Amino acid sequence: MMSPAGFPVSPAPPRAALLTGVGRRRGIGAALARGLAADGFALALSSLDAYDRRVNGEPSDVTDLAEELRAEGTEVVLLDGDLADPAVPPRLVAEAHEQLGPLGALVMAHCESVDSSILDTTVESFDRHYAVNVRASWLLMKAFAEQVPLREEGAPAADGGAVIALTSDHTTHNLPYGATKGALDRLVLAGTHELADRGIRTNVVNPGPIDTGWMTDEVRDAGAAQTPGGELGGPGTVEDLVRFLLSERGRWIRGQLLLSNGGFATPAV
Fold first, then answer.
1. What is the tens place of the pLDDT at every residue in 219-230?
2. DSSP code of 214?
3. Is this prediction's pTM over 0.70?
4. What ranges do the domains of the chain cover?
């Protein structure tokens, strides 16, 4: 295919996406799912009910989200599995590919996040954070890349799609979460260069503090006071950026860690 100017145009990536960490309809993952559905993606949504019950204190309602999206015409596949198990990430990609066809996007919104500090973090907890936040993300990226064909020598690079991960810079008293998110950043950003021969672009988004039901009024007010505009972002502010990065207009942004936090904790100059 050639552009009007005579330059080769890369074929568009498939319009199917695997989105991890979609457990609750009020969470960031659910907002991302709604946004990608509006943009025409078929969706494979992965979740872990046991995590939502253990950490968020409420069950997953991803089945309700799926029904909502299907009613609007979106093809939705529900996948489950504990990402701490190294067999699960490649299985999720394989099942998504089998049911939806080739994937054009991998959006990683999953995490293990349990508050603890330097002196009271257990080895078991640290290892689980690493397994979910880092190792699983690597294995998901690897499996996603392996389903994208290598370009032939001399051929223009096909658009192999995009990988986006959500990160955080919160570390104090949230040690294993913050430390493993730092490792996640480096892992995903390396993908833009290491996976260039498959036309895959990768970015990391740091949305700052987002209230998905965990904030008290005190926490919410304190966080808002640390932003220049005096307000916090919501799941929709994360959705807006991710949709842009996955769009044709956003495909030139590659290998970036993007702060989409309303200027949170940014000192006035």
1. 666 666 667 766
2. -
3. yes
4. 16-259
Name the residue among 98, 89, 93, 100 with its Cα closest to residue 43: 100
- C-alpha span between 220 and 71 (Å, rounded): 34
User: Rounded to whole angstroms, how far apart are CA atoms 106 and 161?
Assistant: 8
Secondary structure class of 20 (helix, strand, coil): strand
Cα–Cα distance between 103 and 83 in angstroms, integer? 19
Distances in whole angstroms, Cα of residue 85 to Cα of each of 4, 45, 124: 49, 18, 14
Q: Which tens digit of pLDDT belongs to each residue from 45-91?
A: 999 999 888 988 888 899 999 999 999 999 999 999 999 999 999 99
Q: Work out the angle at residue 214's Cα, subtended by the Cα atoms of residues 212 and 218, and round it to the nearest 5 degrees.
A: 115
The residue to which tokens 């009271």 are assigned = 120
Give yes or no for a contact between 200 and 238, defined as CB atoms under 8 angstroms apart.
no
Q: Look at the domain 16-259 and name its fold.
A: Rossmann fold (3.40.50)
CA distances from 208 to 162, 188, 242 (A): 22, 18, 14
First-to-final CA distance of the chain:
49
Q: Which long-range contacts (CB under 8 A, 24 or more apart) does 71-74 make?
A: 72/37, 74/37, 74/41, 74/42, 74/43
- Smallest CA-to-CA distance from 14 within 123, 136, 106, 87 is with 106
- In the block, which residue shows the tokens 């689980």? 128
What span, in angstroms and rounded, lies between the C-alpha atoms of 12 and 153? 20
> In a 10 Å sphere around its CB, with 0-12 CB exposed, 13-18 middle and 19+ buried, how is residue 175 labelled?
buried
What torsion, rounded to 10 degrees, do the Cα atoms 39, 212, 137, 88 define?
-90
Residue 162 and residue 245 in contact, taking contact as beta carbons nearer than 8 Å: yes
Instruction: Write down the residue that tokens 């293990």 correspond to.
Output: 112
Q: Which two tokens stand for residue 267?
A: 């000192």
Cα–Cα distance, 45 to 81 (Å, whole number)? 11
